[in-house]
């Protein structure tokens, strides 16, 4: 399948400045780039769409130049913002750059393991492009090629100046010049002819193509391609969870959290997400959707989606861990058999997701354990739960108030305490 057709069918193509780019990059051997400002030390799922678009270019033998915006990130992109971003100091920027570089390297290594394909990429810092420039150098080499009229026509600027209560600083106003210079620098020094990005970045992106043409008067064509912003079936940005980004860093949110995020995908969104966020062949995706549609209550489509994306981001071992925890908490199989097979790292992850309580003695009465686990505020309330049949230990209903939880009852040093259908706590034997 040709590049353009695949991008279209996977909903990764929104606009392009010239159709010629697809034939050029179908042949391989070219370089392209996408920039990400290090406003945090981790990518989030909102970045995944452009990363996956980049993957399809890399699949065809092109090299991805990932720009970490040490310069642009210092200023802050005004696009979509009603006020200035907080400035980051150099120490924080460097920390964030390191985190993002580590992540993209691991991400593409996981994809290589999953697909057997090589993905060629470079990580560059655009601070290195301008750090030796004086302000006069910048005005003469960059500012002279873009008119204020052009800059005022960009949506990111118009919004802020049309509403006096918002306003915009000169620093933010200059952001598009810095981003445009990225393209000019990469074209002149590395032969990069294409920039990809989200549809909301198009104004900044075409500033670079204009700068190249005005400065170099070169017939060599350069291109911009944008991907759509992904919305779910309700119109909400898919990567947001109660207003917070879903991170690709296991220290910010666990692989299990990301796995469950995709397990909770609405049925109507599963086909689009499988196409956009996996490298499964389109024919296989159709088969998955067909099987899913026959029994949607089994959530087969969500399982395939969640497993693929989690493995792509965190690796196979983390995905197996997330799958096991999900089966323990929501599955219908033998939970205790799964627990008996868990590694110490898996046990720690399960305890983190459910909350944990430690068994410090040889035995502990269930009333005290329920209170210690935070499932009831007092022994009397715990007794009511027992009498109502709402408490389970290792998936067995317990109604005896004198029942003892003993270390010998904990396979692999772990037990499960459950209130009702979904409130779990992990019981861990203290060392």
What summary fits the major beta sheet?
A: 6 strands, mixed
Number of helices: 21
What is the radius of gyration computed over CA atoms, rounded to a whole number of angstroms? 26 Å
CATH superfamily of the largest domain: HUPs
The top-level CATH class of the largest domain is Alpha Beta
Which word captures the global form?
A: elongated
Q: Count all strands and give the number.
A: 15
CATH architecture of the largest domain: 3-Layer(aba) Sandwich
Uncertain runs with pLDDT below 50, 5 residues or more? none
CATH topology value of the largest domain: Rossmann fold
Beta-strand percentage? 5-15%
| Helix/strand class | alpha/beta
Descriptive account of the structure:
This protein has 431 residues and is α/β, with parallel strands linked by helices. It folds into three domains: 3-227, 3-Layer(aba) Sandwich (Rossmann fold), CATH 3.40.50.620; 240-332, Orthogonal Bundle (Tyrosyl-Transfer RNA Synthetase); 351-429, Roll (Structural Genomics Hypothetical 15.5 Kd Protein In mrcA-pckA Intergenic Region, Chain A), CATH 3.10.290.10. Helices cover 48% and strands 14% of the residues. It has 21 helices and 15 strands. The strands form four sheets. The chain has a six-stranded mixed sheet with strand order 1-6-5-2-3-4, sandwiched between helices. The protein has a five-stranded mixed sheet with strand order 9-15-14-11-12, sandwiched between helices. It has a two-stranded antiparallel sheet with strand order 7-8. The longest helix has 26 residues, at 90-115.
């Amino acid at each position: 399948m040709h590049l353009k057709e695949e991008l279209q069918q996977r909903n990764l193509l929104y606009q392009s400045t010239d159709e010629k780019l697809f034939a050029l990059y179908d042949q391989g051997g070219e370089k392209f780039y996408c920039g990400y400002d290090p406003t945090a030390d981790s990518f989030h799922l909102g970045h995944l769409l452009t990363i996956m678009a980049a993957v399809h270019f890399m699949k065809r033998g092109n090299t991805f130049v990932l720009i970490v915006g040490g310069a642009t990130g210092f200023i802050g992109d005004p696009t979509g913002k009603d006020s200035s971003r907080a400035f980051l100091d150099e120490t924080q920027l460097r920390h964030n750059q390191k985190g993002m570089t580590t992540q993209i390297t691991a991400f593409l290594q996981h994809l290589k393991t999953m697909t057997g394909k090589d993905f060629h990429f470079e990580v560059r810092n655009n601070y290195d492009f301008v750090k030796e420039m004086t302000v006069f150098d910048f005005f003469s080499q960059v500012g002279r090629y873009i008119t204020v009229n052009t800059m005022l026509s960009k949506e990111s600027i118009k919004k802020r100046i049309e509403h006096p209560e918002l306003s915009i600083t000169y620093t933010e106003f200059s952001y598009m010049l810095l981003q445009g210079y990225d393209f000019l620098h990469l074209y002149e020094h590395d032969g990069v002819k294409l920039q990809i990005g989200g549809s909301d970045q198009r104004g900044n992106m075409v500033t670079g193509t204009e700068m190249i043409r005005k400065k170099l008067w070169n017939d060599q064509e350069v291109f911009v391609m944008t991907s759509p912003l992904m919305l779910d079936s309700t119109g909400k940005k898919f990567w947001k969870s109660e207003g917070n980004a879903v991170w690709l860093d296991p220290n910010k949110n666990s692989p299990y959290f990301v796995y469950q995020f995709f397990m909770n995908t609405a049925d109507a969104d599963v086909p689009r997400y499988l196409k956009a966020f996996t490298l499964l062949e389109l024919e296989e995706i159709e088969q998955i959707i067909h099987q899913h549609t026959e029994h949607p209550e089994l959530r087969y489509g969500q399982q395939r989606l969640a497993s693929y994306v989690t493995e792509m981001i965190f690796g196979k071992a983390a995905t197996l861990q997330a799958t096991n925890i999900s089966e323990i908490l929501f599955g219908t199989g033998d939970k205790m058999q799964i627990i008996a097979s868990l590694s110490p790292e898996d046990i720690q992850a399960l305890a983190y997701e459910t909350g944990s309580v430690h068994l410090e003695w040889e035995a502990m009465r269930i009333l005290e354990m329920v209170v210690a686990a935070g499932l009831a505020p007092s022994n009397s309330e715990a007794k009511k739960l027992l009498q109502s049949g709402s408490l389970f230990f290792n998936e067995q209903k317990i109604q005896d108030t004198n029942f003892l939880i003993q270390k010998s009852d904990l396979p692999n040093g772990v037990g499960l305490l459950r209130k009702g259908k979904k409130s779990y706590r992990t019981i861990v034997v203290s060392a």
